[in-house]
Write a structure and sequence with these properties.
Oligomer: single chain
Distance between the termini: 33 Å
Protein name: Glycosyltransferase
Organism: Streptomyces fragilis
Radius of gyration: 19 Å
Low-confidence stretches: none
Number of strands: 9
Order of helices and strands: EHEEHEEHEEEHHEHHHH
Keywords: Glycosyltransferase, Transferase
GO molecular function: glycosyltransferase activity
Helix content: 25-40%
Pathway: Cell wall biogenesis; cell wall polysaccharide biosynthesis
Amino acid sequence: MQPDAAPAGRRPAKVGAVIITMGNRPAELRALLDSVARQEGDPVEVVVVGNGAPVPEVPAGVRTVELPENLGIPGGRNVGIEAFRSEGADGYDVDIMLFLDDDGLLARTDTAELCRRAFEADPRLGIISFRIADPDTGATQRRHVPRLRASDPMRSSRVTTFLGGANAVRTEVMAQVGALPGDFFYAHEETDLAWRALDAGWMIDYRADMVLYHPTTAPSRHAVYHRMVARNRVWLARRNLPALLVPVYLGVWTALTLLRTRDRAALKAWLGGFKEGWTTACGPRRPMRWRTVWRLTRLGRPPVI
């Protein structure tokens, strides 16, 4: 059973939120900020990062950072993460960070409090992935359930990755294993962080009761989708997998892509990104331990799928 509050004598966990925006959804951003402000318990501190664009008008007390260029999703979020670090400090000014898409909306007023309770109840829990639901239909897309058995989005479970724009991370995780891989720009940056966290002994939960409303969309709406998905898949493997598993993992994904992709232009972009993943620097290589491979397998997703 989860505790109703922090134990006597211990302060409640401080919660911050990082939101990146291109400045083109001011109404949606304001609605999201209002939903964050309505959270029960101590107020959530918020940083909004203008990712190569001015930040629209925000309520008093919300901090803003405007970047001169678009650093991509992980790069922009990393700037927000660093905004919660005091000068010269090793750690962060908050205990938990929420990462929320600027066109999302927290469906409940107790999400921050549920995060506090979940992290308090389980010291090994490092990351929580929220359920994303369409605000009109309540439906959750299969791709938004971060496990292979995704037919029942209402079932909470331990998982091996998380959703980038609807999650909570214990800041101790990032202090230990580092933040998101900024060079990824878009796609798979969450799995890179998830694998590093799991290798360090942390766990990840998918929680169906923590809901972010978000309009139903297709990831392929992004022009760079196919190229970056392929490039970053290779980078992900090169950075994190034992050498024996790199060709197996990439071979499985190549076969799946060839079977699924019917659009010739999309396949050409994917193949170009796959080549780019092998011919460009992927960042530091820190292969996970074999016991982490076994942990991922026991959790239902061995790192070859």
